[in-house]
Amino acid sequence: MTTQPSRRSFLRHACMAAGASLLLPSLRGWAETIHGPRITFAEFTTAAANEKIRTVQLRDGIHLLYGVGGNVVCHTGKDGKMLIDCQFSAGAAHLKAALNSIDAQPLRLLINTHWHLDHTNANPDMHKAGARILAHVNCRKRLATPQRIDFYNLNVPALPIAGLPTEVFTTAKTVEFNGEKHSLQHTPRAHTDTDLFVHFPNHNIIHTGDLWFNGYYPLIDVGTGGTIHGMIAGVNRCIALADSQTKIVPGHGELGTLDELKQYNHMLSTVAARVEKLKHQGKTLSEILATRPTAEFDVVYGKGAMKGEAIVYFAYQTV
Ligand SMILES: [Zn+2]
Description:
319 residues; Metallo-beta-lactamase, Chain A; binds zinc ion
């Protein structure tokens, strides 16, 4: 692998290895190539081991922690610390140091937004540090068995038993912790088939999980149940709970606003509609790509490593 800034930036901000899409074949080649390049655990491990956590306070007692992997939220208070996602085991020491720098409250609860390793790989470390782990029932199933992310040709081993969620739910769950009734909402077949988002109604915060990549085209992990219409439906549910003052934490990218989330949803909905119409007319993926269904969005969402061709591909597979 290279150590170019763009690749490190990807590892920091994008799901899995969006930087790998820098290596995507040309448009014509892409249409004929189902999989992206192979990504290895070693790349993530090296990046996570060398990365420092950046902590931003969202509200009193609630912090957003940026690092290598998905965005982490910590809610600290009288009941201890609750975490949403935990990134990579190789970065666990950095994450624990960042949590200790907030205050001395013990870690008690970890919520997984979905199964992907850049959100759950440190589950065993966080459990050892004192957290019980809560997730959607499908998340536990996938974490307990070997998985694969087709787009990145990445095989992911099962987590050790100590890293598996011990509390699961199917549709929705309310978790009372530190005086907040955190609402966990499952969004079926969205980024994966294991997703949840977390709503803090009293603090007016939403952690979307990987329903939202702020400023980037998202990964939709079709191989583990993701669909573009499920993504759109999930995002719409977040939008319905938000107002102009809501602090919306994406799975990847910077803290966002309702307006930004609406713009992202407009992009997803427009691309899905275009691809669906052409596919139902009998067009092939190559023919659809040639119409450039993402043309006006590329300047905003294609500036990262994930390009427009990828979202067209995900849409084509699932409409
Ligand atoms: Zn993900």
